Amino acid sequence: MRKALAFINPRLSTRNVGDIFIEDSTKRILAYDPAASIDVDPRKPITQGHIDEINHREAAVILGTNLYYREMFKPGRWMFRLEDLKEISVPIIPLGVGTTRHSGEDNGFDADTLEQLKVIHSSCAMGSARDPRTLEALLEAGISNVSMTGCLTLFRSLKSCWSLNDLRRSRRVVVTVRKGQRKNVRRLANLLAARGLEVAVAAQQDKDLFLRRGIPLIRKPFPTVYEYDIRPYLKLVEESLGAIGWRLHGNMLHLAHGNAAMFFANCSRAESFCRYFDLPCAYSEDKEDLPEAVTAEMVERFLDPATFSAFPDRYARTYDALVEFLDANGLAHNLHRRGESEEGRAQGT
Protein backbone atom coordinates (compact mmCIF):
# COMPACT_ATOMS: atom_id res chain seq x y z
CA MET A 1 0.00 0.00 0.00
CA ARG A 2 1.43 3.37 -0.98
CA LYS A 3 2.27 5.67 1.90
CA ALA A 4 1.35 9.26 2.58
CA LEU A 5 4.67 11.09 2.85
CA ALA A 6 5.76 14.53 3.97
CA PHE A 7 8.44 15.74 1.59
CA ILE A 8 10.87 18.19 3.18
CA ASN A 9 11.31 19.90 -0.14
CA PRO A 10 13.71 22.82 -0.89
CA ARG A 11 12.29 23.01 -4.40
CA LEU A 12 9.26 24.96 -3.10
CA SER A 13 11.23 28.20 -2.85
CA THR A 14 14.28 27.24 -4.83
CA ARG A 15 16.62 29.65 -6.57
CA ASN A 16 18.48 26.72 -8.13
CA VAL A 17 17.01 24.56 -10.89
CA GLY A 18 19.04 21.62 -9.53
CA ASP A 19 16.45 21.29 -6.74
CA ILE A 20 13.80 20.75 -9.43
CA PHE A 21 15.86 17.91 -10.93
CA ILE A 22 16.10 16.29 -7.47
CA GLU A 23 12.38 16.63 -6.73
CA ASP A 24 11.34 15.31 -10.14
CA SER A 25 13.68 12.31 -9.92
CA THR A 26 12.72 11.44 -6.34
CA LYS A 27 8.97 11.58 -6.96
CA ARG A 28 9.48 9.52 -10.13
CA ILE A 29 11.38 6.85 -8.16
CA LEU A 30 9.22 6.65 -5.02
CA ALA A 31 5.81 4.96 -5.16
CA TYR A 32 3.70 7.02 -2.76
CA ASP A 33 0.17 8.35 -2.36
CA PRO A 34 0.28 11.77 -4.10
CA ALA A 35 -3.19 12.81 -2.94
CA ALA A 36 -2.39 12.28 0.74
CA SER A 37 1.23 13.45 0.67
CA ILE A 38 2.41 16.99 1.36
CA ASP A 39 5.43 19.21 0.74
CA VAL A 40 7.01 21.32 3.47
CA ASP A 41 9.50 24.09 2.70
CA PRO A 42 12.53 23.82 5.02
CA ARG A 43 13.74 27.26 3.93
CA LYS A 44 10.81 29.03 5.61
CA PRO A 45 9.84 29.22 9.31
CA ILE A 46 8.48 25.92 10.65
CA THR A 47 5.23 26.19 12.62
CA GLN A 48 3.35 23.82 14.89
CA GLY A 49 0.92 23.40 12.02
CA HIS A 50 3.71 22.04 9.82
CA ILE A 51 4.75 19.59 12.52
CA ASP A 52 1.15 18.41 13.01
CA GLU A 53 0.78 17.90 9.25
CA ILE A 54 4.02 15.90 9.12
CA ASN A 55 2.90 13.73 12.04
CA HIS A 56 -0.28 12.82 10.15
CA ARG A 57 1.89 11.19 7.44
CA GLU A 58 3.83 7.96 7.64
CA ALA A 59 7.31 9.39 7.13
CA ALA A 60 9.11 12.66 6.45
CA VAL A 61 11.54 12.44 3.52
CA ILE A 62 14.28 15.07 3.21
CA LEU A 63 14.83 15.53 -0.53
CA GLY A 64 18.53 15.44 -1.35
CA THR A 65 20.22 18.81 -1.31
CA ASN A 66 23.42 20.47 -0.08
CA LEU A 67 22.19 20.54 3.50
CA TYR A 68 24.90 19.15 5.79
CA TYR A 69 26.93 22.31 6.19
CA ARG A 70 29.07 22.84 9.27
CA GLU A 71 26.20 25.03 10.52
CA MET A 72 22.99 23.58 9.10
CA PHE A 73 20.40 25.98 10.57
CA LYS A 74 20.26 29.19 8.56
CA PRO A 75 17.32 31.33 7.39
CA GLY A 76 16.71 30.64 3.73
CA ARG A 77 18.44 27.24 3.94
CA TRP A 78 17.17 25.07 6.84
CA MET A 79 14.74 26.43 9.43
CA PHE A 80 13.89 23.33 11.42
CA ARG A 81 15.10 23.80 14.97
CA LEU A 82 16.23 20.98 17.20
CA GLU A 83 13.02 21.20 19.22
CA ASP A 84 10.97 20.98 15.99
CA LEU A 85 12.65 17.74 14.99
CA LYS A 86 12.10 16.27 18.44
CA GLU A 87 8.35 16.87 18.06
CA ILE A 88 8.16 14.86 14.84
CA SER A 89 6.90 11.38 15.69
CA VAL A 90 7.33 9.70 12.29
CA PRO A 91 10.64 8.59 10.74
CA ILE A 92 12.68 11.44 9.25
CA ILE A 93 14.54 9.95 6.28
CA PRO A 94 17.39 11.84 4.57
CA LEU A 95 17.41 10.82 0.91
CA GLY A 96 20.63 11.55 -0.99
CA VAL A 97 21.54 14.53 1.20
CA GLY A 98 25.05 15.96 0.83
CA THR A 99 27.65 18.13 2.46
CA THR A 100 29.72 20.91 0.91
CA ARG A 101 33.35 21.36 1.95
CA HIS A 102 36.01 23.52 0.34
CA SER A 103 39.73 22.91 0.03
CA GLY A 104 41.35 22.63 3.48
CA GLU A 105 38.07 22.28 5.38
CA ASP A 106 37.55 19.38 7.76
CA ASN A 107 34.34 17.39 8.20
CA GLY A 108 33.21 18.90 11.51
CA PHE A 109 29.73 20.14 12.47
CA ASP A 110 28.75 22.70 15.08
CA ALA A 111 26.99 21.45 18.23
CA ASP A 112 23.42 22.25 17.11
CA THR A 113 23.91 20.64 13.69
CA LEU A 114 25.39 17.52 15.26
CA GLU A 115 22.39 17.19 17.58
CA GLN A 116 19.99 17.69 14.66
CA LEU A 117 21.76 15.00 12.65
CA LYS A 118 21.57 12.59 15.58
CA VAL A 119 17.82 13.19 16.00
CA ILE A 120 17.21 12.71 12.28
CA HIS A 121 19.20 9.51 11.98
CA SER A 122 17.93 8.00 15.23
CA SER A 123 14.37 8.32 13.90
CA CYS A 124 14.89 6.18 10.76
CA ALA A 125 16.30 2.79 9.90
CA MET A 126 18.99 4.39 7.76
CA GLY A 127 19.87 7.70 6.14
CA SER A 128 21.41 8.08 2.71
CA ALA A 129 24.41 10.18 1.73
CA ARG A 130 24.87 11.69 -1.72
CA ASP A 131 28.63 11.07 -1.97
CA PRO A 132 31.59 9.53 -0.07
CA ARG A 133 32.66 12.84 1.51
CA THR A 134 29.20 13.16 3.08
CA LEU A 135 29.36 9.55 4.29
CA GLU A 136 32.80 10.22 5.76
CA ALA A 137 31.58 13.33 7.59
CA LEU A 138 28.62 11.48 9.10
CA LEU A 139 30.73 8.52 10.20
CA GLU A 140 33.24 10.85 11.83
CA ALA A 141 30.31 12.46 13.69
CA GLY A 142 29.40 9.07 15.14
CA ILE A 143 26.43 8.39 12.87
CA SER A 144 26.66 4.84 11.58
CA ASN A 145 23.21 4.07 10.11
CA VAL A 146 23.97 5.66 6.77
CA SER A 147 24.43 4.35 3.23
CA MET A 148 26.11 5.97 0.22
CA THR A 149 23.31 5.91 -2.37
CA GLY A 150 24.26 8.81 -4.60
CA CYS A 151 21.72 11.44 -5.61
CA LEU A 152 18.38 10.21 -6.92
CA THR A 153 18.85 12.41 -9.99
CA LEU A 154 21.37 9.83 -11.19
CA PHE A 155 18.68 7.14 -11.26
CA ARG A 156 15.92 9.13 -12.92
CA SER A 157 15.76 6.67 -15.84
CA LEU A 158 14.76 3.90 -13.35
CA LYS A 159 17.17 1.57 -15.18
CA SER A 160 19.28 -0.79 -13.10
CA CYS A 161 22.07 -0.90 -15.72
CA TRP A 162 23.82 1.98 -17.48
CA SER A 163 25.23 2.21 -20.99
CA LEU A 164 26.70 5.15 -22.88
CA ASN A 165 24.73 6.62 -25.76
CA ASP A 166 26.45 6.93 -29.12
CA LEU A 167 28.60 10.08 -28.92
CA ARG A 168 28.11 10.55 -32.67
CA ARG A 169 24.36 10.98 -32.36
CA SER A 170 24.63 14.76 -32.00
CA ARG A 171 27.07 17.65 -32.37
CA ARG A 172 25.35 19.58 -29.58
CA VAL A 173 27.09 19.82 -26.20
CA VAL A 174 25.52 21.31 -23.09
CA VAL A 175 27.72 23.49 -20.88
CA THR A 176 26.64 23.82 -17.24
CA VAL A 177 27.92 27.04 -15.69
CA ARG A 178 28.37 28.95 -12.45
CA LYS A 179 29.10 32.63 -11.97
CA GLY A 180 32.36 32.14 -10.04
CA GLN A 181 33.93 30.43 -13.07
CA ARG A 182 33.16 32.93 -15.83
CA LYS A 183 36.60 33.01 -17.43
CA ASN A 184 36.97 29.23 -17.27
CA VAL A 185 33.46 28.73 -18.67
CA ARG A 186 34.13 31.02 -21.64
CA ARG A 187 37.37 29.19 -22.39
CA LEU A 188 35.54 25.85 -22.28
CA ALA A 189 32.73 27.05 -24.56
CA ASN A 190 35.22 28.46 -27.06
CA LEU A 191 37.24 25.22 -27.10
CA LEU A 192 34.10 23.20 -27.79
CA ALA A 193 33.02 25.58 -30.56
CA ALA A 194 36.49 25.36 -32.09
CA ARG A 195 35.98 21.59 -32.32
CA GLY A 196 32.90 22.20 -34.47
CA LEU A 197 30.49 21.39 -31.66
CA GLU A 198 27.26 23.29 -31.12
CA VAL A 199 27.28 24.76 -27.61
CA ALA A 200 24.08 25.19 -25.61
CA VAL A 201 24.18 26.52 -22.05
CA ALA A 202 22.10 25.08 -19.20
CA ALA A 203 21.83 27.71 -16.48
CA GLN A 204 20.59 26.84 -12.98
CA GLN A 205 20.60 30.27 -11.30
CA ASP A 206 19.95 33.80 -12.47
CA LYS A 207 23.66 34.70 -12.26
CA ASP A 208 24.50 31.93 -14.74
CA LEU A 209 23.30 33.89 -17.78
CA PHE A 210 26.53 35.62 -18.78
CA LEU A 211 27.16 33.52 -21.91
CA ARG A 212 23.92 34.50 -23.60
CA ARG A 213 25.12 38.10 -23.89
CA GLY A 214 27.68 38.69 -26.60
CA ILE A 215 29.76 41.66 -27.75
CA PRO A 216 29.65 42.28 -31.53
CA LEU A 217 32.88 41.21 -33.25
CA ILE A 218 34.46 40.39 -29.86
CA ARG A 219 32.49 37.79 -27.95
CA LYS A 220 30.06 35.21 -29.29
CA PRO A 221 26.76 34.68 -27.42
CA PHE A 222 25.56 31.14 -26.74
CA PRO A 223 21.91 30.01 -26.55
CA THR A 224 20.95 29.54 -22.91
CA VAL A 225 18.16 27.58 -21.21
CA TYR A 226 17.02 28.92 -17.84
CA GLU A 227 13.57 27.93 -16.57
CA TYR A 228 12.10 26.61 -13.32
CA ASP A 229 10.79 23.66 -15.29
CA ILE A 230 12.57 20.38 -16.00
CA ARG A 231 11.11 19.92 -19.49
CA PRO A 232 13.48 22.17 -21.48
CA TYR A 233 16.44 20.56 -19.73
CA LEU A 234 15.17 17.09 -20.64
CA LYS A 235 14.88 18.30 -24.24
CA LEU A 236 18.58 19.20 -24.09
CA VAL A 237 19.30 15.70 -22.78
CA GLU A 238 17.46 14.19 -25.74
CA GLU A 239 19.11 16.42 -28.35
CA SER A 240 22.73 16.48 -27.16
CA LEU A 241 25.60 14.07 -26.71
CA GLY A 242 26.07 15.18 -23.10
CA ALA A 243 26.99 17.90 -20.62
CA ILE A 244 30.28 19.32 -19.39
CA GLY A 245 30.76 21.96 -16.73
CA TRP A 246 30.33 23.00 -13.13
CA ARG A 247 26.80 21.95 -12.15
CA LEU A 248 26.66 18.59 -10.36
CA HIS A 249 22.95 17.94 -10.85
CA GLY A 250 22.82 19.45 -14.33
CA ASN A 251 25.55 17.04 -15.47
CA MET A 252 24.02 14.17 -13.49
CA LEU A 253 20.72 14.55 -15.34
CA HIS A 254 22.57 13.71 -18.56
CA LEU A 255 24.38 10.74 -17.01
CA ALA A 256 21.05 9.41 -15.76
CA HIS A 257 19.89 8.99 -19.36
CA GLY A 258 23.11 7.58 -20.83
CA ASN A 259 24.76 10.79 -22.03
CA ALA A 260 28.39 11.63 -21.47
CA ALA A 261 29.14 14.05 -18.63
CA MET A 262 32.33 15.74 -17.50
CA PHE A 263 32.73 17.60 -14.22
CA PHE A 264 34.62 20.64 -13.04
CA ALA A 265 34.49 21.20 -9.27
CA ASN A 266 34.78 24.19 -6.96
CA CYS A 267 34.16 22.18 -3.76
CA SER A 268 33.77 18.63 -2.45
CA ARG A 269 30.42 17.95 -4.15
CA ALA A 270 31.48 17.05 -7.71
CA GLU A 271 35.00 16.05 -6.64
CA SER A 272 33.71 13.39 -4.22
CA PHE A 273 31.07 12.19 -6.69
CA CYS A 274 33.65 11.77 -9.47
CA ARG A 275 36.16 10.02 -7.23
CA TYR A 276 33.59 7.38 -6.30
CA PHE A 277 32.22 6.89 -9.81
CA ASP A 278 35.71 6.85 -11.37
CA LEU A 279 35.10 9.88 -13.57
CA PRO A 280 37.61 12.66 -14.35
CA CYS A 281 37.26 15.92 -12.44
CA ALA A 282 39.16 19.21 -12.74
CA TYR A 283 39.21 21.18 -9.49
CA SER A 284 39.27 24.97 -9.32
CA GLU A 285 37.93 27.19 -6.58
CA ASP A 286 35.70 30.04 -7.76
CA LYS A 287 37.66 32.85 -9.43
CA GLU A 288 40.70 30.62 -9.97
CA ASP A 289 42.06 30.46 -13.51
CA LEU A 290 42.30 26.94 -14.93
CA PRO A 291 45.15 26.42 -17.43
CA GLU A 292 43.84 26.02 -20.96
CA ALA A 293 45.69 22.70 -21.23
CA VAL A 294 43.61 21.28 -18.35
CA THR A 295 40.36 22.39 -19.97
CA ALA A 296 41.44 21.01 -23.35
CA GLU A 297 42.26 17.64 -21.76
CA MET A 298 38.83 17.53 -20.12
CA VAL A 299 37.22 18.13 -23.52
CA GLU A 300 39.25 15.28 -25.05
CA ARG A 301 38.25 12.90 -22.26
CA PHE A 302 34.62 13.98 -22.52
CA LEU A 303 34.59 12.94 -26.19
CA ASP A 304 36.33 9.59 -25.55
CA PRO A 305 33.94 6.67 -24.79
CA ALA A 306 36.73 4.91 -22.86
CA THR A 307 36.40 7.58 -20.17
CA PHE A 308 33.15 5.96 -19.06
CA SER A 309 34.31 2.32 -19.06
CA ALA A 310 34.22 1.94 -15.26
CA PHE A 311 31.01 3.86 -14.73
CA PRO A 312 28.46 1.08 -15.46
CA ASP A 313 29.76 -1.09 -12.61
CA ARG A 314 29.78 1.83 -10.12
CA TYR A 315 26.29 2.84 -11.24
CA ALA A 316 24.92 -0.70 -10.77
CA ARG A 317 26.43 -1.09 -7.32
CA THR A 318 25.06 2.24 -6.16
CA TYR A 319 21.65 1.46 -7.67
CA ASP A 320 21.62 -1.73 -5.57
CA ALA A 321 22.57 0.26 -2.46
CA LEU A 322 19.69 2.66 -3.15
CA VAL A 323 17.20 -0.21 -3.50
CA GLU A 324 18.40 -1.72 -0.21
CA PHE A 325 18.13 1.66 1.50
CA LEU A 326 14.57 2.27 0.30
CA ASP A 327 13.51 -1.24 1.32
CA ALA A 328 15.13 -0.85 4.77
CA ASN A 329 13.06 2.29 5.36
CA GLY A 330 9.83 0.79 4.06
CA LEU A 331 9.65 3.24 1.15
CA ALA A 332 7.87 1.70 -1.84
CA HIS A 333 9.56 2.52 -5.13
CA ASN A 334 9.64 1.93 -8.88
CA LEU A 335 13.14 0.45 -9.00
CA HIS A 336 13.85 -3.26 -9.33
CA ARG A 337 16.82 -5.38 -8.37
CA ARG A 338 19.13 -6.41 -11.17
CA GLY A 339 18.03 -9.78 -12.51
CA GLU A 340 14.44 -9.11 -11.44
CA SER A 341 12.07 -8.10 -14.21
CA GLU A 342 10.01 -4.96 -13.86
CA GLU A 343 6.89 -7.08 -14.54
CA GLY A 344 7.92 -9.50 -11.80
CA ARG A 345 8.40 -6.69 -9.31
CA ALA A 346 4.97 -5.26 -10.12
CA GLN A 347 3.46 -8.70 -9.45
CA GLY A 348 5.42 -9.07 -6.23
CA THR A 349 7.46 -12.03 -7.50
Task: Please characterize this protein's 3D structure.
The protein is α/β, with parallel strands linked by helices and 349 residues long. It folds into two domains: 5-152 and 316-340, Rossmann fold (3-Layer(aba) Sandwich), CATH 3.40.50; 172-302, Glycogen Phosphorylase B (Rossmann fold), CATH 3.40.50. The protein has helices at residues 18-29, 48-55, 82-87, 111-122, 132-140, 182-194, 231-239, 248-256, 268-277, 292-302, 311-328, 342-346; strands at residues 5-8, 38-40, 59-63, 92-95, 127-129, 146-148, 172-176, 198-202, 224-225, 242-245, 260-265, 281-283. The protein has a six-stranded parallel sheet, with helices on both faces. It has a four-stranded parallel sheet with strand order 2-1-3-4, sandwiched between helices. Strand 7, helix 6 and strand 8 (198-202) form a beta-alpha-beta unit. The two termini are 16 Å apart.
